[in-house]
Automatic annotation (TrEMBL):
Membrane recorded as keyword: yes
Keywords: Membrane, Transmembrane, Transmembrane helix
Keyword Transmembrane belongs to the record: yes
Protein name, entry field: 4-amino-4-deoxy-L-arabinose transferase-like glycosyltransferase
TM stretches of this protein: 28-47, 91-110, 117-138, 144-162, 174-192, 198-231, 238-260, 272-291, 303-329, 359-377, 384-404, 410-427, 439-463
Amino acid sequence: MPETTPSALPLAAAAAPPRRQGMTMGVLALYAAIAIALLLAVSLPFATDYVGADNDDTMRLVMVRDLMAGQGWFDMTQYRLGLDGGTLMHWSRFIDLPIANLIGVFSLFVEQPRAEALALAVWPLMLVVPVLFFMGLAGHRLGGAAAMHATLILTTIFVVALNRFQPGSIDHHNVQLAIIAGIAAMLLDPGLRARDHAVAGALAGFAIAIGAETTPLIGAVCLVVALRWLWLGPAFRAAAAAFGLALAATVTLAFFATVAPSRYTQVTCDSLSYGFYALATFGGAMLFLVASLTSNRAFGGRLAALAIGGAVIAGAVLVIAPGCLANPLDTLDPLLKTFWLSGVIEAQSAVAQFRLEPASIGTYYAPALLALAVCLWRIRRGEAVGGHVTMLALIGVAFAVSLIQIRGAIFSNLLSALPLGFAIADLRRASNAHPRNLGLGLAFAALTLAAVPATWALAGALLPGRSQEQLQAGLAGTAKVRAACTAQSSIAPLANEPAGVVSGPSNLGVQILRYTPHRVLSAPYHRNQGGMLTELHIGLSNPHQAEAFLRGAHVTLVAFCPDDTQTRDLAKAEPEGLYADLLKGRVPDYLGPIAGTENAALQLFRVRPQ
């Protein structure tokens, strides 16, 4: 007889059949339409460009253009970035392909720039639909129709407030958010069906294929499935086996579909490579075999089988990719950490961000902390234990990642909408049932506000030392620098120069790639350490030494933005350096100003022949 015990039931997402009341496609479509309308309303009136404000959005467009111009599918080298030979990027063609196809379709009806603008507007808005669908489904599975509506409201606010879904945002983070929402919805399936867990496994494999940021979260997903199988045994055999098989199959297909044969044996820790492929396939296959062969054993037998499998996988990690246990950015040159990474907000730890901007901490961490507290409270009370154990694990891992790098906060904030939405729905129900109980009403209002990251952002902006005047001045200054130095009109004189190599601050690099045919030494990507370090040494070195660096890197043009933060930091660090001299108006003989840019926001120079 298969082993079944009453104690196993709480780890199921729900003991009862799925509740479908109120879970309609019409409701989800309405929320998606509202979210898209709000995104258009808050972004289009203020848009000055059809590409997103993030450097990654522009670089993605450059990569897509290269693909459409004939660069090989397997060739992810950005030949116009860095030193001679270019820079091998760590992104996925799975994101480039749909954007390129959209541009191709629209180009049948309008000219190329308009086709790009339409494609870049449509792509992020399209992704709103799966995010809201999966979050609505997950909310319904966790707490019913009321929880679904509360979750959808929180998710809509999250999507509108986050710049990753605004027109022009074509980096892969919006796709990752849709995938994580889908995995959560599948794991919360109340019927523990093999079909839903197969979908979760396929989504997990796809997440690994498009970016390494979600790898710790995918590891938590695998652990949740494995532990659920350990507890439930035969009742979860088909689901666990389906998850493991789908994960292994998807990663295998993705690996051979996007990795060049010449790189099959390479191990990289920031992209899909042999390391992630071997470990994910091995782990998925191990789960499939363990679930298929040992599910009918007693708990102790299943524990032993899982322990052996886990030990084998841990050993494989140490053999195949031991370096991937550390943060890939830890290997950066100290100079890059000082003058580049320290200014990248998403790469900061919680401690570093608290020192830099304590008022922003609530935005990144408060909703997840509240969600974790709600999950623990629900588990202690025995309410929807399985679902809340699952959410506790996922949010907990995402929160832990965000403590190391803030970029993980977008995933913890998204997932927090599920337990918080359920709790808000319960408080609203209780408040309506007892209208004279002021405490319930206040608790409902307080939790609703606290569940929204934007609330904490607003509260932080009003704290002493960060008044609205200071915020407005900072935003205006940032916008001014961006418009002055990265605008097409400022970079246009470069486009008229013969194709060559440009040295300039990293924040200008992607815009120069977009608007000109030149190669640039520096753009903010950790795989381009050689080019970025060369540009830093050029700025820090005295004019004579800087000339040697310029000629050694075959630089033909220098782009100098006096208002660039990194440029000013370099000039301050080395008052006798080239950038300090240029700020003082002292131009060495080997640099010839390009006519018309001598007093411009972006000053351009030709490197005279030796």
